[in-house]
Amino acid sequence: MQPLCCRALHEQSLLKHSHALxxxxxxxxxxxxxxxxxxxxxxGELAQVIRDRNDEYAFLQxxxxxxxxxxxWADAQPxxxxxxxxxxxxxxxxxxxxxLDSIKQKEEQAEAAKKEEAAAAKASMFSGDGMWDVPLQKLxxxxxxxxxxxxxxxxxxxxxxxxxxxxxxxxxYSYSGHxxxxxxxxxxxxxxxxxxxLDQAMEEARSKLILSMKRGYNLVLLLANSAPPLKxxxxxxxxxxxMLVEDQTTLQSVLGVESNWREIxxxxxxxxxxxxxxxxxxxxxxxxxxxxxxxxxYKEFLKEEIPLDSMQHIKxxxxx
Length: 320
What we know:
Blueprint: H1 4-33, H2 43-57, H3 62-75, H4 86-125, E1 132-135, H5 139-148, E2 152-157, H6 168-174, E3 179-182, H7 183-192, H8 198-215, E4 218-224, H9 230-234, H10 243-246, H11 248-252, H12 265-270, H13 273-276, E5 286-291, H14 298-302, E6 311-317
Parallel strand pairs: 1-6, 2-5, 2-6, 3-4, 4-5
């Protein structure tokens, strides 16, 4: 342990060093502003300090700058020669920095409060098992919240202007890069026009599913204003497992590079690792179902073919 006198001398040395550093800082600022080495700052030179700090902190509007400089000049206490000397500058500058720190702290507190408010609003929007009303801009948040609850999102699309028109949600998905499986179109081509066989339609579905699993896309099942026979006809363990919309827990168990998807029955049945060139199921893969039936009708139309109880029902609307 150092003797008391030695410790006191050491502390005095540190204090002197600290003061020297402080003096160097102020001398540097003061000297850079003191044009002509007058030994003091004119009002315009002091204003430059405020202008520089305002560029950094943006704490003054244009209309506030003049009055602030006027008050600052008075607070800095210029001498009879109209100059603010170094001692006065140091005291005034410290007060200015303290003021700016206070502004910054208040801004940070306001931003933190804003984030807390947004988080609370988000939690409220996605709480409960009933219908969620979600603007199109918040769709991704809603999807993530539904998957976190181990529910498949069922989007009730109300973003169209009139029946039969392309909706804003459909337009969004058409540009999203996700894989879209149009089940109404499949019904028309397979059952009505008979231009495509069921095997061909299911192979197309499988192709989109495998690509989604490899690259982390959403497989978006677009029902439009129809009730396609997904469960009874268009699902298949080898092409489009019904489990994908019915059981999120099982679906999510194969996601990511660490999963043991090769040992799970449904993926072993669906995926040929060599043919499909899959090393793992991408962590971002998942399934979304979209209907354009009205809020009063969709359950009645879809209940036989879509596992409504296993899904998070989400009304999607567009804001003006």
